[in-house]
Amino acid sequence: MSNAKHNTKENPNPQDTDSSSYTPPKVWKQDKDNGGKFSSINRPTAGARHEQTLPVGDAPLQLYSLNTPNGVKVNILLEELAELGVKGAEYDAYEIDISEGDQFGSDFVAINPNSKIPALVDYSTANTNERADEPIEIFESGAILLYLAEKFGKFIPMMQGEARAECLSWLMWQVGSAPFLGGGFGHFYAYAPEPMEYPINRYTMEAKRQLDVLDIHLKNSKYMCGNNESDYNIADIIIWAWYGQLVLGRLYDDAGEFLQVDSYPHVQRWAQEVADRPAVKRGVELSLQPIA
User: Fold this and answer.
1) Which tens digits make up the pLDDT trace of 210-229?
2) CATH assignment of the domain containing 254
3) Residue 143 falls inside a structural domain
C-alpha cells in the first residue's frame, strides 16, 4: 500500500524533484520498466501472449473473472437472479488472475480482445443466434450487466420511458466515471511506484466530486432510480461495486479517511443497505474456480 497521504505531507512539492523535469520525446517508446504494481505485465500491445484453454462447465452461463470492483458487478447480478430463482441464469465462475497474466491467454483474448475482466459466454443461445451453434460472448462489465438484465427481464426497466432512461443514464455514468476512480485515483494513490502530488490531487478532486454527485442524488432517493424495492437495479449494482465499496472502506486501505468518506452520509447509507443484501454478500465473496 502506498504511503501517499503521508509522503505528500512530508514533501509538499514533489514536482520540484527530478521527475518533474521529464520532457516527452517526439515519439514514445517503452524502453524501461515504468514501475508500479502491474508493471511486469503492462505492454503497449494487444493480443494473446500464450496458449490457453479455458474450462467450460455445465451451466448455460460461463463467467471468467476476478473479484475486483469490475468483477463483482457481474457476480452480484448473477446472485440476485439466483435469489429470484430465475431459470437459465445458472453459471460457472472461473478465476482469471490478472497479476499472473491470465487475461492474455488465447482463449480469454478470443472472448475479450481487450484483455480485461470480466468476460461471459452464454451457451444457452448456441442453436438460436444468427451464427448457428456458436455461443454469445460478451465483454465489458456494463455490457454484461445490460445483456443479462435484458435477457431475463430483471433489474432493469424493460419499457422505453423515463425509468429506463434513468437506469441507463446512471449505468453509463459509472462506465465513464470509474476510470477516474480506479485507473486515476486508485492507481496513483495505491499502486504507483512513488507518490506524486499532482496526479493524486487531480484524481482525488475528481473522486470527491463524483462522490458528491452521488450524495446529492441519494439524499432524496433510496436507490439510484427510486425509493421502492422494485427500483433497485443494475445502476445500483454497477455503482456500488466501486463507490459503495469505497465509502465502506473496502478499497485502497486507508483511502476512506483520505477522501473523508464520512462526509457523504447519503452514499454511506445507500452503500450499507446494498451491502446487506444476501446476493451482494455472496457476489463479493464468490468462490472462483481455477482455470488450470
Assistant:
1) 999 999 999 999 999 999 99
2) 1.20.1050.10
3) no
